[in-house]
Target: N-acetyltransferase domain-containing protein
Amino acid sequence: MDQSNKESPRAVEVTLRRFELSDVDAMMAWASDPQVAACCRWDPYESTEQLLEFLRNTVLPHPWYRAICLAGENRPVGAVALRPTGDPRRAELGYVLARAHWGKGVATAAVKRAVATVFDEVEKLERIEALVDVANPASQRVLEKAGFTREAVLRKYTVVKGAVKDMVMFSFINTDPLVE
Model:
């Protein structure tokens, strides 16, 4: 991530809302960016039709997939999602953000807002996990600033786009204090 835009001392305000099909053009702006998709499991989208299909079949029916919007705006600049695991007490957090907003505190604000609401919205949830590529220190910093605990490096944990990756496991449990 570009570190030239340092986070301002004043906290960034974001809102989280459910996605709508009409968000496809705003989403395409970042979902088609190869740099944004580089650390993600998905490849950059090449067509609006592909993205509309993803919105219809995955995002809209998903129980906790939210658009990240800057305060006072309705246009999504990213997404944050909570994926269920086989255990109803645990879920995995993932997030993605348009490159224009990297290094400005937007992802941290979105993760903080998600954590502040998701325990009340998801029945039985006690633990949020986040897995981050060891080669993505900016995303690791987002989680640290949002109050997550770095637990371990999971060596050769997963394959992403054909490459075996070491991942850092972070967690936030329902008794952890929220970070302001």
